[in-house]
């Protein structure tokens, strides 16, 4: 029984959030089968899925203090994975609630939808815990494959199928490039485990061209997944065509996970570079162009989902600034902490934004335009207030959490002499305020008939209100949260 | 010198035919021809695996890849009406030129990198015979199984989840309009 | 004896071959406009990656390369299955498998 030595029951316990999610994803499908292949009551499906998510959340919080490798070095549990896995589970729960009340996802295949969403979350958790390039790659593919199918399952007829096709082709292409980079890295190091790569990375990055190419390919693949320039062209089309709950899940969860992987890449694979190295310079250019492109393209959008997609592209640019800082900062945790803080606040804001879009979509064929928001201030003042707060936070107006997130990122950039990047970021934020204020103007100043808040979408409404509260609370309490993140990073 | 050519001829023949078949995959006007050339490419790659002491993987490649995946491709190709699909290449001279140049740049850079960093690892390997060709496919297979089920068991399980997802997802996609028993 | 071994087939031979096949695959994805052709070029890229892994595994002297090829092969089959399912869905909806017609969303 040699296999017992390779993993212990503690390892299985540490992985139990993912196991719980997987088994709770099977329950709706099984009940559908026993119901004679007819769709069961969507509320019971939602309840069983949420029970799984809450259990996984409880398990994660309880086990959060164990920081150890697991499964013979394949996984590593530390402060970063603890923090981000809680975030991912919250995002999953919110997306499930949005999905139940949105007509493009709540159709005769809702059980399959829930199954795929929960398994995508399992893939995300696997990526977060990965300590080996193989585990990371397979987890990322699990996450992406579920999303390709989820987008195609929308009730909407045309845009969603096109979006699924585009995402699949480009996503698989980027995965192949990433995999080639993994192959080159493995070739030079001799192993795929992060701990062994870290040992040889310091000299390999300067001496071996093959290793450098491997890292470049990995970064290229990741740049696609987080929609950085010049690989951002798929984002507006895919975000617009997907069902809004899936868009909420993608824009927050996938970006968070891929940026954490990007952070690990810069910390482990690319060690000991300073800001004069070519790679860091190229990353700076990418950040600047991404911010510029995202903000300028969003100025001319009328479709709310496309506008939010371009805004999330520009947010990727801001996060990349933080990544560059943590890449050149070596052992200091300020850059990494600012990235994690930004990811958390960005996820809350974007969930709120796409949740509001999801509520306002009467049926699956409707594409929400900015003009549809007219007069929302009078018809549903609370919803309009939530949307206003979310937009202000996305724009970075104090005292919302968005302002503090940008503040931390830019001050980290200034601390490491990336001055022109910080100035560029501030300028881009100022440009972005125009398209964040436009819907607010429509909501309060115009009086035409627009979209109405339907009566039966109370649960989503609750989630959006919760996110609004969090935006305010974390904005005021940003300093303690930031200190907690730094201490969590320092432990590992 | 003649022993050099003869003992290495197999590699050059295989490599050049692989490149030719791969090129035909991409440039054939008829998709069925492309699929068949892809099968030939996969068999060629399996031959290369055989010489790299990965005989089991070579067998799996032939059975799974060339046998199952390509049959799936050909089956789906037969479903479509492809009469007007011949010559579905990207139009546009400028963008095509740019794409071709960028790919040429990438491949040139890669080949240059590999050529330049030739610490002739080949010498080291053949002298130390780490993968001793004569010992035993059986040993390699046993070691593979050992690794797969002890050290990489987690990845194995996640892969199982992935296959389940693919199975259910493919059925769900085909049932978007309700499936075989749907009332339209 | 040593001389003949020294000019044998080394690591670089396999790497260059797989790099060439990989870039032919990239060319296929960029230039072909038929969905199935793009999927086949993707399979070509994955085959080149498998060759890279096995070659590195042989010359590094461990079996990690072969294990990785196991996983990549499984993944490639799964992706092909989903890709073909999506292609069939597109064909049933739009009666067209050429992506030149999918410019419905602009901006």
Describe the structure.
The complex is a heterotrimer of chains A (492), B (184) and C (107). By secondary structure, chain A is an all-alpha fold. Chain A has helices spanning 9-14, 16-34, 42-62, 79-100, 110-129, 133-152, 159-189, 194-207, 209-225, 234-241, 244-269, 278-298, 304-328, 334-360, 376-379, 381-395, 401-415, 419-445, 458-476, 478-491; strands at residues 69-70, 75-76. Chain B has 184 residues and is mainly alpha-helical. Chain B has a domain at 1-83: Up-down Bundle (Four Helix Bundle (Hemerythrin (Met), subunit A)). Helices cover 76% and strands 0% of the residues of chain B. Chain B has helices at residues 2-27, 31-51, 55-79, 93-116, 121-128, 137-150, 153-174. The longest helix of chain B has 26 residues, at 2-27. Chain C has a single domain (8-101), classed as Helix Hairpins. Chain C is built from 4 helices and no strands. Chain C has helices at 2-6, 11-31, 35-60, 64-94. The radius of gyration of chain C is 19 Å and the shape is elongated. Chain C starts with a helix and ends in a 13-residue tail after the last helix. Chains in contact: A-B, A-C, B-C. Chains B and C meet through helix 1, helix 2, helix 3, helix 4 and helix 5 of B and helix 1, helix 2, helix 3 and helix 4 of C.
List strands and helices in order, with pairings.
The complex is a heterotrimer of chains A (492), B (184) and C (107).
Chain A (H helix, E strand, L loop, with lengths): L8 H6 L1 H19 L7 H21 L6 E2 L4 E2 L2 H22 L9 H20 L3 H20 L6 H31 L4 H14 L1 H17 L8 H8 L2 H26 L8 H21 L5 H25 L5 H27 L15 H4 L1 H15 L5 H15 L3 H27 L12 H19 L1 H14 L1
Antiparallel strand pairs in A: 1-2
Chain B lengths: L1 H26 L3 H21 L3 H25 L13 H24 L4 H8 L8 H14 L2 H22 L10
Chain C lengths: L1 H5 L4 H21 L3 H26 L3 H31 L13
């Amino acid at each position: 029984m040699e296999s017992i030595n390779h993993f212990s029951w503690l390892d299985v316990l540490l992985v139990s959030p993912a196991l719980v999610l997987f088994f709770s994803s099977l329950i709706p499908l099984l009940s559908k089968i026993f119901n004679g292949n007819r769709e069961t009551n969507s509320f019971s499906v939602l309840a069983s899925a949420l029970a799984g998510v809450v259990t996984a959340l409880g398990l994660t919080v309880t086990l959060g203090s164990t920081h150890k490798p697991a499964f013979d070095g394949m996984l590593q549990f530390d402060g970063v994975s603890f923090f981000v896995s809680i975030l991912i589970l919250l995002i999953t729960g919110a997306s499930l609630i949005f999905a139940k009340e949105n007509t493009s996802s709540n159709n005769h295949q809702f059980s399959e939808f829930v199954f795929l969403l929960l398994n995508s979350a399992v893939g995300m958790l696997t990526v977060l815990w990965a300590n080996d390039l193989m585990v990371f790659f397979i987890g990322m593919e699990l996450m992406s494959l579920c999303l390709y199918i989820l987008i195609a399952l929308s009730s909407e007829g045309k845009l969603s199928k096109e979006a699924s096709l585009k995402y699949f082709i480009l996503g698989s292409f980027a995965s192949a490039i990433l995999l080639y980079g993994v192959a080159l890295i493995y070739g030079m190091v001799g192993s795929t485990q992060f701990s062994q790569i870290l040992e040889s990375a310091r000299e390999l990055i300067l001496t071996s061209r093959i290793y450098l190419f491997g890292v470049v390919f990995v970064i290229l693949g990741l740049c696609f997944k987080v929609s950085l320039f010049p690989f951002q062209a798929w984002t507006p089309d895919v975000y617009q065509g997907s069902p809004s709950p899936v868009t909420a899940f993608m824009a927050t969860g996938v970006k968070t996970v891929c940026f954490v992987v990007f952070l690990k890449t810069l910390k482990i694979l690319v060690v000991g570079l300073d800001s004069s190295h070519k790679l860091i310079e190229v990353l700076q250019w990418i950040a600047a162009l991404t911010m510029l492109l995202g903000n300028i393209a969003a100025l001319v959008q009328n479709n709310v989902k496309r506008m939010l997609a371009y805004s999330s592209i520009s947010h990727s640019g801001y996060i990349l600034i933080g990544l560059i800082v943590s890449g050149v900062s070596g052992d200091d945790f300020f850059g990494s902490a600012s990235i994690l803080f930004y990811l958390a606040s960005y996820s809350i804001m974007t969930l709120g934004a796409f949740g509001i879009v999801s509520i306002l979509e009467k049926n699956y064929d409707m594409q929400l335009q900015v003009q549809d928001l007219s007069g929302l201030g009078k018809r549903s003042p609370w919803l309009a207030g939530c949307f206003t707060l979310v937009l202000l936070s996305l724009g970075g107006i104090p005292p919302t959490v968005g302002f503090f997130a940008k503040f931390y990122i830019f001050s980290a950039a200034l601390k490491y002499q990336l001055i022109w990047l910080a100035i560029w970021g501030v300028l881009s934020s100022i440009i972005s305020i125009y398209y964040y204020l436009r819907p607010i103007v429509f909501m309060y100043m115009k009086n035409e008939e627009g979209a109405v808040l339907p009566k039966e979408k109370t649960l989503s409404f609750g989630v959006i209100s919760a996110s609004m509260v969090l935006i305010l609370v974390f904005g005021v309490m940003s300093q303690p949260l930031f200190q907690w993140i730094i201490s969590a990073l320092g432990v590992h | 010198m003649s022993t050099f050519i003869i003992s290495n001829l197999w590699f050059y023949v295989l490599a050049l035919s692989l490149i030719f078949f791969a090129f035909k995959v991409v440039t054939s006007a008829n998709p069925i021809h492309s699929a068949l050339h892809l099968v030939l490419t996969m068999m060629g790659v399996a031959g290369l695996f055989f010489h790299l002491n990965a005989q089991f993987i070579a067998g799996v490649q032939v059975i799974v890849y060339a046998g199952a995946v390509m049959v799936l491709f050909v089956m789906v190709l037969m479903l479509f009406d492809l009469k007007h699909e011949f010559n579905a290449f990207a139009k546009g001279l400028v963008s095509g030129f740019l794409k071709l140049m960028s790919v040429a740049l990438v491949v040139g850079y890669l080949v240059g990198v590999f050529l330049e960093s030739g610490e002739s690892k080949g010498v080291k390997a053949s002298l130390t015979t780490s993968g001793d060709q004569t010992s035993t496919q059986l040993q390699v297979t046993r070691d593979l199984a050992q690794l797969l089920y002890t050290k990489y068991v987690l990845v194995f399980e996640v892969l199982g989840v992935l296959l389940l997802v693919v199975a259910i997802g493919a059925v769900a996609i085909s049932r978007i309009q309700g499936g075989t028993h749907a009332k339209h | 004896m040593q001389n003949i071994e020294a000019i044998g087939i080394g690591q670089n031979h396999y790497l260059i071959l797989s790099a060439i096949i990989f870039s032919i695959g990239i060319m296929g994805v960029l230039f072909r406009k038929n969905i199935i052709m793009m999927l086949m070029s993707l399979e070509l890229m994955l085959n080149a990656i498998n060759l890279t892994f096995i070659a590195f595994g042989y010359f590094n002297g461990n079996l990690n390369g072969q294990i990785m090829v196991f996983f990549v092969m499984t993944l490639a089959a799964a992706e092909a299955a989903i890709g073909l399912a999506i292609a069939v869905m597109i064909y049933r909806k739009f009666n067209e498998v050429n992506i030149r017609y999918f410019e419905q969303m602009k901006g």
